[in-house]
TrEMBL record:
The keyword Transcription applies. Keywords: DNA-binding, Transcription, Transcription regulation. Residues 9-71 form the HTH iclR-type domain. SMART domains: HTH_ICLR. PROSITE patterns: HTH_ICLR, ICLR_ED. The keyword NADP does not apply. InterPro entries: ArsR-like_HTH, GAF-like_dom_sf, HTH_MetabolicPath_Reg, Tscrpt_reg_IclR_C, Tscrpt_reg_IclR_N, WH-like_DNA-bd_sf, WH_DNA-bd_sf. It comes from Paenarthrobacter histidinolovorans. Residues 72-255 form the IclR-ED domain. It comes from the Bacteria. This is IclR family KDG regulon transcriptional repressor.
Length: 256
């Protein structure tokens, strides 16, 4: 690769990095904020944002001088979702679970050291779960994340258990390595994972793995509720419904 080609590749990486940063800013961000977060010169950031805006990957809001992700990103995301069956194939299964539980149903996959929400059906009640499709969350503080870790193949599971950052998100988050190790072993034994205000105060959830033919999780499926609506025992009672749906998803979704 020539020096010029290497520079171009580096600029592509920087542009993609800006898109990732914008994905974490639902209210948008200024060029100065993005330059600071990305560790890039303002001139470079401004030039890249101009190119991304021109091609529809980024929208510019003149009034607040803020940038947002553009519809081109949404379009590509929808294509990825359709390719993996998360829309047409998975959505009816999630909807049936919500029809039974009357609560939110969430489908997630692992994206590096995070989980990625790929589909969600809200429950009919007014209190709404905030984990929308495209949301990146912690593995150690969520039921979907714990299920994904517990049912990874052994080498990757061991790496995650030993090396995953255990940063607290609430006062209930697991931050001790030995406690996390024991939690993952318990998830493997019982076949489901729980979250009790560890990721967000006022919320609890239960999740089961969606397993491939080797018995490893390529996704996880959860029911999430506000703590005032269901006790942990009542929530765990939904595990058989989730497991039945997970088996259907395992048979119908492309396995990664």
């Amino acid at each position: 690769m020539s020096v010029n080609e290497d520079t171009k590749t580096d600029m592509v990486g920087k542009a993609l990095g800006l898109l990732v940063l914008l994905g974490n800013e639902p209210k948008g961000a200024s060029a100065a904020d993005l330059a600071r977060s990305a560790g890039l010169p303002f001139s470079t950031t401004y030039r890249l944002l101009g190119s991304l805006t021109r091609d529809g990957f980024v929208d510019y809001e003149p009034d607040g001088r803020r940038y947002h992700l553009g519809l081109r990103v949404f379009q590509l995301g929808q294509r990825v979702s359709n390719h993996h069956g998360f829309a047409a194939t998975a959505l009816p299964v999630l909807q049936r679970v919500t029809d039974i539980t009357h609560e939110a149903t969430i489908l997630s996959v692992r994206d590096g050291d995070h989980h990625l929400t790929v589909n969600k059906v809200d429950g009919p009640k007014t209190f709404r779960v905030t984990s929308d499709p495209g949301h990146l969350g912690a593995l150690h503080t969520t039921s979907v994340g714990k299920a994904l870790v517990a049912f990874e193949d052994e080498p990757e599971r061991k790496r995650l258990v030993e090396d995953l950052p255990l940063d607290p998100l609430t006062e209930h988050s697991i931050t001790d390595r030995d406690v996390f190790r024991a939690e993952i072993e318990q998830v493997r034994r019982q076949g489901y994972a729980v979250m009790d205000e560890e990721n967000e105060i006022g919320m609890r959830a239960v999740a089961v793995p969606v397993l491939n033919s080797q018995g490893h999780a390529f996704a996880s499926l959860a029911t999430a509720v506000p703590v005032f609506r269901l006790s942990m025992e009542e929530l765990i009672a939904h595990v058989p419904t989730l497991q039945e749906a997970a088996a259907e998803l395992a048979a119908r979704l492309p396995q990664r």
